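User: Sequence in, structure out. Go.
Assistant: Echoing your sequence, followed by the structure tokens.
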Amino acid sequence: MTSETMENSEKTGLEPPNPIVLELPSSSGYILLARLVVSCVGRLAGFEPEDVYDLKLAVTEAATNVIRHAAVEKFQVEYRVLSRTVEVVVVDRGGGFDVGSLKGRPGEHGGFGLAVIQSLVDEVAVDSTAEGGTRLRMVRRATSP
């Protein structure tokens, strides 16, 4: 979908384009692949190199959190390209965690990764349950050129 087509679909209220979905083994060797895809997605959305760099760091941190904490064999990273905006959703089917324990400052219960991600993107939402795993949604809008 071209940038022009994406802009037109946003103006008409049509659904955003289908996401690009990667299902990755829970191994640090695959983080590079997640970074490579988000780099391409950022360029498709019209991002400047600094914006792409921030997105790559956020995806790296999110994937690292899954690998370290979720105890799953695989996880998904979904990328959605919008006009000058990128949405990335990282989903695992692990045992979840208490999101409320990470509110406020990072500390002995963790939260450093989430704090880093929040500093790199415009919006962050985390949903986690013992039955459904964890879903981390990140949205980054391009800065003005």
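User: And one key feature?
Assistant: The radius of gyration is 15 Å.
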